[in-house]
Design a protein that fits this description.
It is a single chain. By secondary structure, this protein is of the alpha/beta class. Helices cover 43% and strands 20% of the residues. Strands 7-6-8-9-10-12-13 form a seven-stranded mixed β-sheet, sandwiched between helices.
Length: 324
Amino acid sequence: MSALERHWLRCVAATALAVIVVIASRAGAQPVKTYRIGVILVGTPEPLRQDLRDLGYVEGQNTVLEVRDTSGAPERLDEFARELVRLKVDVIVGMYPAAVLAARRATRTIPIVTIHTPDPVQLGLVESLGHPGGNVTGVTSLSSEMSVKQLELLKEAVPRVSRIAVLWNPDNPWHPIAVKALESAGRSLGVTLQLLEVRRPEGFDDAFGAMTRAAAQGLVILADPVTFAHRKRLADLAIQHRLPAMGSLRAYAEAGSLLSYWADSAELEARAASYVDRILKGARPAELPVEQARKYELVVNATTARALGMTIPPSLRLRAYVVE
């Protein structure tokens, strides 16, 4: 056999061996784990989806996102939570208090991560912030102090106001706590509060009619799925009735409310995604401390201020993010 023939045989043998190795490697490879993440929210899951993608959870590759938007169907909240449990999701993300409570009613075993949820100790969701002790953990942004701060900032923006309306939903588990704190703060600020219950958007017109009859001079809109989903309409009604309105998340001011004050939503959702990541990697929610918001943002809508013929005090404007 010639040297050329021997070289050719060695090349063929090497190629065959490489093919065998590849086949064996593929045959022994472990299948990619697919995680199923349930999300109950109002609005869009895109920010959370991007935060999860940044951590390596990509839909269509290793992740299925089961999103349930309750914007138009708040009465289906418990049904959506039970549906996610039947789908055997690995974790549930609840974007607001009622969503977390519904998830907790549906399961005591599947981990639940909170985002915009008030003090979970007061709501009976965890034993303590440091040691949750159950299947709920995450980040908390709401508290009675948050609503008090909103009232104080509205009073600072419009010092002349002495009567302020408050839109609240008695079906929201956090609102009675916030209202009680607001009543106390109102007395300290010398402000009379007009408390108006609104469960559905059909009640908005009646609420604003009541504000007009009571000569309200300002409005605080408590954070709620109903007010969030209809924030543009509420902002338009407030301008129509010449009422400076304080919202919560930045989206309220961007929709036309004069002001908003809230924890930084982008930061909260990124941190919530990190909870999901740790849980999917084996961490137990009972042992993951609940974290509080670190960053807060005051937003002023300059267009609305002009429409109301108002000048925002420089001391307030310098601390705010201004949208046009």
